[in-house]
Design a protein that fits this description.
The complex is a heterodimer. Chain A is α/β, with parallel strands linked by helices. Chain A has a single domain (7-85, 132-232), classed as Rossmann fold, CATH 3.40.50.300. In chain A, 38% of the residues lie in helices and 24% in strands. Chain A has nine helices and nine strands. Chain A has a six-stranded mixed beta sheet, sandwiched between helices. A three-stranded antiparallel beta sheet of chain A has the order 2-1-4. Chain B is mainly alpha-helical. Chain B has one domain (17-231): Orthogonal Bundle (MetI-like fold), CATH 1.10.3720.10. Helix content of chain B is 78%, strand content 0%. Chain B contains ten helices and no strands. The chains are: A alpha/beta, B mainly alpha. The A-B interface holds A 53, 55, 73-74, 77-78, 80, 84, 86-89, 96-97, 100, 127-128, 130-131 and B 126, 129-130, 132-133, 135-139, 143, 147, 151-152, 231-232, 234. The structure holds adenosine-5'-triphosphate and magnesium ion. Chain B: It is found in: Cell membrane. Chain B: Keywords: Membrane, Transmembrane, Transmembrane helix.
């Protein structure tokens, strides 16, 4: 499918001021489907995603894409836990990544209109993005990440402040992207969402990847007792 | 007190009768300061953005120096520019001394640190907000800078106007490098200094009021121009 996979991570670690945020991580990811990252607060889900994306410094270990790191970075986007809005209109936010990649304004605007429609923001194209509601901002961030047709999208709790309906809409868009061959790596606290979307599951705990398995067996019977406790809703220690 | 009233009425009559000499020096004040504003902003704003975006070793030092240079004494700047531009100086062959261009140069040196410092503060905040996104999008250094400058343009306008205010009210440096020559380099501030020296307080005050009016007028105009492209508040 996509030539950036398989991704092979060996002993990757990132730390900040002496504190290890995540790692050492060993992980093999192939080129298909949705990988859902779960784990308690502070487990290092965000840090892992950022590390793989290249947004956090790799202090030791290796992250090897099947292609060059540069090419891999070009084909991936990131939706942050707290959406970052450019101080521009919704439309200008949407065309921004396209314009930065050199697409003509007219073409970019047509695509933006299309994506605004898909995430239900078509009536707000002229509105300044920073005044959108939290949920609308998340939808905009999602559309802005998908508009460049990336091969891989990282999503850090993309539905954190969305109501049920908006969440369903977003999940539909994600499933569509997945069907179109886009690889998704997504973190979530919503186990329902994890079950709906996951092809594989990464269970994080205290900065470590404790389990990486296909979704069905994981949810039926996780290998580690910690993951089992987490799925039961117990406090994991 | 009578001087103040005399000054006000003198100012009124000078403006009302469109006094030729007044128009000339007021226009020159405007030209020199707007020139300094344009050149100064063209240097200071990208510099401020670069300082916000790039992490190089001397960054903190450069910012500290820039902040310190905000308090640069204009007279000293004038003196240095004078020496550089004087016939025996390194740029003497250009023949710029005692021309409006020399005055623009001196004012640019005075206002660049001011504009850059104020601009840097707002650009730094904006960069903190945008950092993760722009890094994630793999944009080039130039694109980062352009994005910051565009999205912070309102704050940058204020920074530039602060520079303009400093330039149009400045007298020490332009007196030295311009020489306050009638019909050549006389501007409002140097004329005020001259008339005060001669003891014509009413005329000096009149020119002072016109100077203030001019500064307010330019500020309002530029703010209004900035507002015409409405995009809501941030
Ligand atoms: N820049 C940073 N400096 C210092 N510590 C950090 C930094 N970023 C994250 N951490 C710490 O690293 C740990 C992992 O954080 P991370 O954000 O990856 O967790 P998470 O699994 O995403 O949590 P949540 O579910 O709350 O989003 C936390 O203890 C956090 O406080
Ligand atoms: Mg997180």
């Amino acid at each position: 499918m996509s030539d950036m996979f398989p991704l092979s991570v060996k002993g990757a670690k990132t730390s900040r001021r002496g504190k290890v945020l995540v790692g050492p991580v060993d992980l093999e990811l192939d080129g298909q489907g949705t990988c859902v990252v779960i784990g308690p607060n502070g487990a290092g889900k965000t840090s892992l995603l950022r590390l793989l994306h290249g947004a956090a410094r790799l202090n030791s270990g290796q992250i090897n894409w099947a292609c060059s790191t540069e090419a891999a970075h070009h084909d991936q986007t990131f939706v942050f836990q707290r959406p970052v809005m450019l101080r521009r209109s919704v439309e200008d936010n949407l065309i921004y990544p396209l314009r930065m990649r050199g697409m003509a304004r007219k073409q970019a605007k047509a695509l933006a209109a299309d994506w605004a429609e898909r995430v239900g923001l078509q009536d707000m194209l002229r509105r300044p993005a920073p005044v959108l509601s939290g949920g609308e901002q998340q939808k905009l961030a999602l559309a802005r990440a998908l508009i460049v047709a990336p091969k891989l999208v990282f999503l850090d709790e993309p539905c954190a402040s969305l109501d049920g309906r908006a969440m369903r809409e977003i999940e539909e868009i994600l499933q569509e992207a997945r069907a179109g061959g886009t690889r998704l790596i997504l973190s979530t606290h919503d186990m329902g969402q994890a079950k709906r979307l996951a092809d594989t599951v990464v269970f994080m705990f205290q900065g470590q990847v404790h389990e990486h398995s296909p979704a069905e067996p994981f949810f039926a019977q996780p290998e580690t007792s910690r993951a089992a406790a987490f799925l039961r809703g117990d406090i994991v220690e | 007190m009578t001087d103040l009233w005399d000054g006000l009425s003198r100012a009124f009559w000078l403006v009302a009768t469109l006094d030729a000499e007044l128009s000339e020096i007021a226009l020159r004040s405007l030209q020199v300061s707007l020139g300094a504003l344009l050149v100064g902003s063209a240097i200071a704003l990208p510099l401020a953005a670069l300082l916000a975006v790039r992490r190089f070793r001397a960054r903190r030092a450069v910012i500290a120096v820039l902040n310190a240079l905000m308090g640069l004494p204009p007279v000293v700047v004038g003196l240095v520019v004078y020496v550089l531009l004087s016939r025996s100086g390194p740029f003497g062959v250009l023949g710029l001394l005692f021309t409006p261009t020399a005055m623009v140069i001196a004012q640019v040196i005075i206002i660049v640190p001011l504009i850059a410092s104020i601009a840097h503060q707002s650009l730094r905040d904006l960069w903190a907000e945008y950092h993760d996104l722009l890094i994630s999008m793999n944009v080039t250094q130039t694109q980062k800078i352009a994005t910051l400058l565009w999205d912070a343009r309102r704050a940058l306008l204020t920074a530039s106007l602060a520079g303009f205010g400093r330039a149009i009210g400045e007298v020490g440096a332009i007196m030295i490098v311009g020489g306050n020559i009638d019909h050549a380099t006389r501007v409002l501030t140097t004329a005020i200094a001259l008339e005060t020296g001669k003891g014509d307080f009413a005329l000096a005050l009149a020119l002072g009021f016109i100077l203030i009016a001019l500064a307010i007028f330019v500020n309002l105009t530029i703010h209004w121009l900035g507002r015409t492209e409405r995009e809501g508040r941030w």
